[in-house]
Structures are given as C-alpha cells and as structure tokens.
Amino acid sequence: MNYTNFYLPDFFFLLGNLSILPERVLIISLITVIVIDLSNRGRNTILLHRISLISMSISMIALLCQWGIHSVSVASENYPISNFSYIFRLFLLICSALSVLLSVDYIRCSKTVLAEFLFFVLTAGSGGMVLCWANDLVTLYAALELSSLSSCFLSGHTKKDIRSNEATTKFLLMSGASSSFLLYGFSLLYGISGGQLQLDKTADGLPLSQYLVAICTSIAFTTAGTAFKPSLVPFHQWTPDVCEGVSPTPVVAFFSVTSKVAAPALFTRLFGLIFPYLSNEWHIVVGLLATSSMILGNLIAVTQISMKRMLAYPSISQIGYIMIGVLAADPENGYASMITYTFIYILMNLGTFARITSFGLRTGTDNIRDYAGLYMKDPVLTFSPVLRSPSLGGIPPPSGFFGKLYLFWHGWKAGSYPSVMVALVTSVISIYYYLKIIKLMFTGKNERSDASTTYIQNSLVSPSISKSSIEIAMIIRALASILPGILIDPIIGITRNTLF
Fold first, then answer.
1. Which of 90, 120, 214, 392 is a plausible cystine mate for 154, CB 3.0–4.6 Å?
2. Of 228-242, 328-342, 362-376, which range is least confident?
3. Which residues does the UniProt record annotate as the domain NAD(P)H-quinone oxidoreductase subunit 2 N-terminal (predicted)?
4. Integer angstrom CA distances of residue 184 from 201, 414, 440, 494
5. Is the pTM higher than 0.70?
6. Quick one: which of 370, 375, 401 has its CA closest to 388?
7. Residue 159 burial by CB count (10 A; 0-12/13-18/19+): exposed, middle or buried?
8. Quick one: CA torsion of 339, 171, 241, 123, rounded to 10 degrees?
9. What digits encode the pLDDT tens for the residues 203-241?
C-alpha cells in the first residue's frame, strides 16, 4: 500500500478544512512563550524571539496553503472565510513578523521584558485575524476587544516611563468609550433584526421602512465605535500621545500598521454586509471622516518636532486615503485599490520605523533636528528615507505614487470627487514635510556633535552586528517599498473581486 499517496492528500484536505489553523498556531505560540519565560525566568530571550518568528512563519505557510487550496472561499459551515479575509490575515501576519524583527534589540536596550512584548503582539495579531473572518456580532466584538486590550497593554510596556503610563491611561479610557458606542450599536441591530447575530441574517432582518431612525442611530454608534480603531478624525486623539509616549519604537511601528489593516477589514465587513441597502447614508459619513482625517493629519504634521509624533499624524491622513478605496468598491474590482495601497503602506511605514529604530539605538532621541547632517555621519541610514519618504508622499516613481494613483482614480470613478480633490491637495502638503527631513539630513548642521556616533550598549549582539543587521533590514524594506510599484499589475490582479 502506498502510504504517501494515501496520507498526503488527506493532509492537505485536513489543512484546508482547519479554517482557523493560522490563529491556532499563534495561540499555541503565545502560550509557549509565557511557559518558557516563566521556566527560564526571563533569561533566554533569543529563544522566545525565534519561537515567535517561527510560529508566524508557520502560520503564514498554513494560510497560503489554505488560500491556494480554496482560491475563492473555504467550504466550512462554521467559519466561512472569503478571499478578502485571506488577504488581510496575511497582511496582519506580515505586520506582526516585521515588528518583531525590529523589536528584539531595542526592547533589550530599553531594559523592558521581551516575553510580554511578544505575548501582546501575538495576542493582538490573532485577535485582528479573527476580525477579518468573523461572521457574527458576538465574535466580532470579542475579537475586537482582544486586539484592543492587547494593544492597550502593549502601549504601557515601559512601566517606569511616566509618558507611557499617561498615554496608556488615555488609550484605555478612549478605547472603553468607543467599545461602549460599538456595543450599543450592535445591541440596536440585534433588537431590530429580531435577535439575529449572523451578519447576513442581521441585514436581511432589518425592517428599513419601520425602524429607519433606529437603524440610522445604529449606523452612527457603529461608525463612532469603529472609527476609533484606525484613528479617523475626530476619534484620533489617542494616536499622537501613544506614539510619542510609548518608548519602544517597534511598539509604535506595530500600532501604525496593524490598526490600518484590522480596522478597515472590520469596517468593510460590518458596513458592506449589514448596511448594503443604506450605502448612500454611510458613504456620506465615511467620506466626511476621511476628508477630515486627510486635512487635519497633514496640516498638524507640518508643525511637529518629534519624529514619532510627526509620523503619527500622517498615519491619520493615510487612513483617510485608505477609506477612499472603501467607498470606491465596485463589483468588478472589489476593494482592490484599498488592499493594494494598504500593502504598499505597510512596507513604506515599517521601513520608516526601521530607520527611526536604528537612529534611536545610536542616539537615544527622536527629535527631528537631530537628523541634521546625518548624511555626513551615516550615508546608509540616509539612503533609506531618500527612497522611502518620496513614496509616502506620493512622488513618482516609487510605489506610493502608483498606489495613490490607482486609489484616487477608482475613487474618482466611484463619484467621491470631494474626497479625491482633498486627497490630492493634502498629498502635496505631505511632500513638504517629508522632503524637509531629507533636506535637513543633507544640508542641516547639528549642534550635537555626538548625535550619530553614540551607540547604546547592552544589546543582544555586538554593536557592529546589530548595526549591520538593521541597515540590511532598512535597505531591504526600502527596495520592497519600490518594487511593488513595478509589479503593481500582478498585485492588483490578486486583489480584484474581493467583494463579499
């Protein structure tokens, strides 16, 4: 009997039907990290780092295998997962893995606990992945709270830092308020629909003619609850404080990308499945939020002197651009423009934070003026933002330009004329503060002569090896933020037809 022919198809069939296998791998990994840390009393941090990266790699492989086996959807009665969900779950795994890669040396240098950081990253990542396929209100809310609370604890990772404690308190209070808004909106939906929890059944059970006022109230509360997560204006107040108050830069990097992945996935599933017959009403609300985010985020970013706080405000404007893709969804392209730009944004932003991490390790500061004259002291560290900052600003030919062009074009075709016009103007404004930093690095004079020569010791590896590894990571991500612009047609082809 040929056991290979017998077991191999069965293995792939089992892999394809274990629809939540990637999430299970992460849960097993986070339990393993805690157990090993307790048994070793926090000594073997390299092992914890490797376990988390290996588990994320296994989760990615399992996800890609499932995606290949079921190219459109997974045939599961309990957990129906669409192509849209596969894409965003993969994005969350990429964000988590790249954030962990940035973390190990920085966390050790800042004298904080690596195991707790990995535990909360894995927990927030698994919660965000559940958000991408959850098909009922209870699962959505539980997954959202799992991701939000993990992110909140992660923001207070540096317990001895007063700024971090203050930022965590603000984050916790605002997160609790937004969750109460969302829960009230869900309770209205549950009552009006006759006690339905499934998203499609809830949509079918909404009596639009009888309870239109109550349904619009539910839309308002649901919008307020979900707009907090991606930092849409006016629900953005927590983002600058958390980004500046959180000391470890990898934590800020993790926040900046995962919130821009999980929150749009939640937003599109909620409004695309529950309110398809009221699309005009919620499109107007989302358009106003997106426009306000683009204007406020770019204007306030010009005045900032802290690099992390300055990048927090462009992240607010970036979610405004992404929401244009949500409004531009159509049966032919689906959410292709939004997904494509989100993928490019992940690479651009994580590469930017890799540069900030390296600079922070050497100088212990994130003040913009300390970047003056950096080209003369470290050309490699200067090379990364020269390639990536124009991409964030939408200057051709990097990938950010093609991503924005595709996004704005579909927004214009969908009729979002005011949002697209504001996006074009604010993109020009963003070019100013990105190019200002590049100019400062080449022509500025730094009053601190030792700003780029001091390297923080007590790292996991020797300074020369750590410096080399971070520089390699920056170069790879700089190239990765350019190559998607060249390969944008295959990326668009993969992301098409992603409507539910």
1. 120
2. 362-376
3. 17-105
4. 19, 31, 49, 37
5. yes
6. 401
7. exposed
8. -50
9. 887 777 777 888 888 888 888 888 888 888 888 777 777
